[in-house]
């Protein structure tokens, strides 16, 4: 079971200063760096019109074994084989294929997707999918990162693989 901590608190990460690494601090003290290329993908894929379908992909990076902090250095972009609608997304196997070319220490560390709202809120389906990801990848890292990109800001969560505790990050 995934437990959402402090669900009444909303921390948002702005799209400002996308040319710089963003530092996200979680309530458990872990720090996450999000590289500019990833921020640009989130910004460019926003659902700013009712014509735009949900977009998403995998987050690529690594966990620092010494500090326990995370770095998101890349992300897969939407693929033509993804199944997309205004409110749903199924990633195709092409995303997995893109992971095969990564060299250590880089690997899968989570997922991202868009919502058509200004400030996104995880849905029941999001929480269910995150739980499946945690179970499937329980041996890959101590936690997984989940990002939902809204039209005006994005939100970031870290889910402890062992405890299933979901904590939200705040831009430093």
C-alpha Rg, in Å? 15 Å
How many strands?
Answer: 12
Unreliable residue stretches = none
The third-level CATH topology is: Cytidine Deaminase, domain 2
Integer tally of domains: 1
Question: Per the principal axes of the C-alpha atoms, what is the gross shape?
Answer: globular
Secondary-structure arrangement, i.e. CATH architecture: 3-Layer(aba) Sandwich
Description:
The protein has 172 residues and is of the alpha+beta class. It has a single domain (3-171), classed as Cytidine Deaminase, domain 2. It contains three helices and twelve strands; from the N terminus they run ββββαββββαβαβββ. The strands form two sheets. The chain has an eight-stranded mixed barrel with strand order 3-4-6-5-9-10-11-12. The model has no long low-confidence stretch (mean pLDDT 90).
